[in-house]
Design a protein that fits this description.
The complex is a heterodimer of chains A (473) and B (318). By secondary structure, chain A is of the alpha+beta class. Chain A has 2 domains: 96 residues, no CATH class; 337 residues, Beta Barrel (Porin). Chain A contains 10 helices and 16 strands. In chain A, helix 4 runs antiparallel to helix 7. Chain B folds into 2 domains: 158 residues, 3-Layer(aba) Sandwich (Rossmann fold), CATH 3.40.50; 121 residues, 3-Layer(aba) Sandwich (Rossmann fold). Chain B has 10 helices and 8 strands. In chain B, strand 1, helix 2 and strand 2 form a beta-alpha-beta unit. The longest helix of chain B is centred in the C-terminal third of the chain and has 26 residues. The chains are: A alpha+beta (473), B alpha/beta (318). The interface between A and B is large, with 78 and 81 residues.
């Protein structure tokens, strides 16, 4: 019956299903609200919802839900704290033995001393995930017919592009997990870019992420185009980690160390294959997993120094190890370091932001008959000179692949790439609000193995609709 | 294999670090409180007394809508027993990142160590009817700038004391007592402030950002226009011209602006009309030890001074 409702009224119906399936969850939402139960009752009896015929087995859900508000109200009105009485060790032992391992789940959220808020969204809305849509469009022009854009979201030919349409869904699942999904639409398909759970309360400052995730190698890899200062990816990322970055199904454990400053250790293991991911590993050339050595391992140390209220420095070291697709037992190692320095005066009124970001990656690959090494990196500067305006400049570099004999050699992964490549990029960004962005960008690409450099110009538009996602540093 | 060597090394380093620092990271005060903004922080400091160590995340000189989620702030949250937030989506652009990064279940939304103080006040400027972002950066739950109304802060103080008492039962009575004492002092000062600012009752004022609902409700001033054409959208020349016309027409005496916004456009209005600009601190000077009462007192004196200057200027031109 409930299903039929859902068909009639999708958004509300969805929440209704949640409500009916777990009246407990609804009751908890009421408890969190303190004095709010009447609002909940309003929803339950609203003529809109009532107009849908409630048949047989759906009916019990209502009477069951109805008495709950009074329970919740009395819960909230009586103080839950043990009013000063000490709890003896004996009491605690009795409590512990009474509570089986599944214990404590319901105890945390219980009391809230908050009064009801007239304008707070209804409990129904609050149970839905936060939904945001990010659209990136670009108009591009290149001086060359075959430009060397390597990012999966990069504009890569003359004309209009949909760089991505990202549907982002985020929700806290329960007191222990949160769930994030980023689904990317292109004109010709859908891709599950990320979908992972994050633990919220593991002991010892540990955190686990599990699912399809972008690994935390370096600074840019784990981020989405929305967070980038340029309309395209540094080519180092595309060349080494892949057009869609280094990501895959897997597991990540991170530990916030108890050092006096911020030190985080990250370790992840993911699948080494992917159409345009994990490029220096299996990538599209999947040789399968025969042993744990056929998975992709990433380790990282991230440190942050608040040099002053206005000045921040973040420094990371990353490494990735795994098999590559050139043959059985051929391995790849990637080492990276990244630096981010940001000056943003907050101890006085100012719109100024100046930031420097640099990331350098060394890669070594066993290929049939040789070991290839190369160096790739970028350095970029952003200057936000007004509340809505910023200018950025970036230099990209990629070395030729060197063989064991120290000489530049050919690489099957990038057959054309036999020499040094430099690219200089300039961008001007205007944010009408924090929900939209217009960017003009131009670049001069000098792949020295080609006869002529490549000029490029982009005009990009980004729109963010829906829930306001929080930005990471 | 290199992989296993690295992982072993990481584990060894980790174990060594945790052995060294496990001790000091234990509790020193009874309660570690983190407040997102200075006004809540100073209140928590008042109520917690010697039993609480209080830190804040956003500086009072900083726009609390746009705070960088600097990882050192996540570190503060990882050690916190209680997180006080303004709520109403004020911190939505940065706090969730920090909460996740903190790996601390005690201060996640829904836990006892998370207190959204907006639940303790009667919210104003709650949009009625459908809302969308074309209306600017509006707060769907209502205006979050309630810390400027000392009447609203009475219940916030009570709520903070109650929650501190729930988390730290042995000191509950003391928290309650300190909150009551604070409210008593606040009321005494409020009577004085209201007397000082009585002339402002009914006066038209201009705001920069839409931050003044609670202050206006307390003092009885009428906010006739804002310099931002819509919340979050910087002033445009045409809009500023309109505001200037209104300032002249209504004989506006005061322009209210948070000190963390650039004051160029407000100065234009000030120069070309009888209105005087009052730059109001974004929060108490927490690092300098300012109390909430001192902070409001400072604001009241600034308002009063500007009012008198505007009055005397207007009397001189008459």
């Amino acid at each position: 019956m409930i299903r039929r409702r859902e068909a009639k009224r999708r958004a509300l119906g969805c929440a209704w299903t949640v409500l009916a399936i777990s009246t407990v969850a609804a009751a908890r939402a009421q408890e969190l609200d303190g004095g709010a139960p009447p609002a909940e009752a309003d929803v339950a009896t609203t003529p809109d919802a009532g107009s849908v015929a409630i048949e047989g087995d759906a009916a019990p859900a209502e009477p069951e839900a109805a008495p709950r508000p009074t329970d919740a109200a009395s819960d909230a009105s009586t103080p839950r704290s043990p009013s000063g009485d000490e709890v003896s060790a004996e009491d605690l032992a009795a409590i512990e033995s009474a509570l089986t391992p599944e214990a404590t789940a319901g105890t945390e959220g219980g009391t809230s001393s908050s009064a009801s808020t007239a304008g707070s969204p209804s409990a129904l809305q609050r149970l839905l995930p936060d939904i945001a849509i990010v659209a990136d469009f670009a108009l591009a022009w290149f001086s060359d017919d075959s430009p060397l854009q390597s990012g999966g979201h990069d504009p890569s030919s003359n004309g209009f592009h949909l760089q991505q349409l990202e549907l982002s869904l985020r929700s806290v699942v329960d007191p222990y997990f949160r769930f994030d999904a980023n689904i990317v639409f292109s004109l010709f398909g859908v891709e599950l870019e990320e979908a992972y759970a994050t633990t919220l309360d593991l002991p010892a400052q540990l955190q686990v992420r599990a699912g399809q995730l972008l690994t935390r190698f370096g600074r840019i890899n784990a981020t989405h185009p929305h967070a980038w200062e340029f309309a395209d990816q540094p080519f180092a990322i595309g060349r080494v980690l892949g057009g869609e970055g280094n990501r895959g199904l897997g597991l990540e454990v991170s530990w916030l160390t108890p050092m006096p400053w911020y030190v985080e250790l990250v370790a992840s293991v993911t699948q080494a294959n992917g159409e345009s991911t994990a490029r220096s590993f299996y990538g599209p050339n999947d040789l399968g997993v025969d042993s744990p050595a056929d998975l992709l391992y990433v380790g990282a140390v991230e440190q942050f120094f608040a040099l002053s209220d206005d000045l921040s420095l973040a420094w990371g070291l990353s490494a990735a190890f795994g098999p590559n697709g050139t043959g059985h037992d051929n391995r790849t190692e990637v080492y990276g370091t990244d630096l981010y320095v940001k000056y943003r005066p907050i101890s006085r009124a100012s719109d100024l932001v100046v930031s420097l970001q640099s990331e350098w990656i060394v890669r070594r690959r066993q290929v049939p008959g040789d070991v290839l090494s190369d160096v790739n990196g970028y350095t970029q500067v952003l200057w936000r000179f007004a509340r809505r305006w910023a200018m950025g400049a970036r230099h990209d570099y990629g070395s030729p692949p060197y063989g064991q004999n120290g000489e530049a050699t050919a690489d099957d992964l990038d057959p054309e790439w036999t020499d040094h490549r430099h690219r200089a990029t300039w961008a001007l960004t205007f944010w009408p609000t924090e929900f939209s962005r217009i960017r003009l960008q131009s670049s001069l690409d000098v792949p020295t193995w080609r006869e002529t450099p490549i000029f490029a110009a982009f005009l990009a538009l980004e729109l963010v609709a829906g829930a306001h996602g929080a930005h990471s540093f | 294999m290199k992989t296993s060597t690295l992982l072993t090394a990481l584990a060894a380093v980790g174990a060594a670090i945790s052995a060294v620092f496990a001790g000091p990271s234990g509790a020193s005060a009874d309660l570690r409180v983190v407040a997102t903004v200075a006004d809540l922080g100073t209140l928590a400091r008042e109520i917690g007394g010697s039993h609480a160590t209080v830190t804040i995340l956003a500086l009072p000189t900083q726009d609390p809508h746009f705070v960088d989620a600097r990882p050192n702030l996540a570190l503060e949250l990882s050690r916190a027993d209680l997180l006080l937030t303004v709520g109403l989506d004020l911190e939505v652009g940065w706090l969730p990142t920090l909460q996740i990064g903190a790996r601390n279940g005690r201060i996640q939304r829904g836990a006892q160590g998370f207190l959204d103080c907006s639940g303790l006040v009667t919210t104003l400027e709650v949009p009625s009817g459908p809302i969308e972002r074309s209306m600017g950066d509006i707060h769907p739950g209502g205006s979050p700038h309630y810390t400027l109304d000392p009447r609203a802060m009475e219940n916030v103080a009570r709520g903070i004391a109650r929650r501190m008492g729930e988390l730290d039962v042995p000191n509950a009575a003391e928290y309650r007592g300190r909150a009551d004492a604070f409210i008593g002092r606040l009321r005494a000062h409020r009577a004085r402030w209201e007397q000082t600012l009585a002339p402002l009752r009914g006066a038209p004022v201009i705001g920069y950002h839409r931050s003044w609902a609670y202050l206006a409700s307390w003092l009885g001033v009428r906010v006739v226009e804002h310099l931002e054409p819509r919340p979050g959208i910087p002033p445009t020349p045409a809009h500023v011209a309109r505001v200037l016309a209104i300032a002249r027409r209504d004989a506006v005496r005061l322009i209210l602006q948070e000190a963390y916004y650039a004051d160029r456009t407000a100065r234009v209005i000030e120069e070309r009309s009888g209105a005087r600009l009052v730059r109001i601190a974004g929060g108490a000077d927490f690092a300098g030890g300012q109390s909430y009462i001192q902070r409001i007192d400072q604001m009241v004196r600034a308002l009063s001074r500007a009012w008198q200057r505007a009055e005397s200027a207007s009397a001189a031109t008459r």
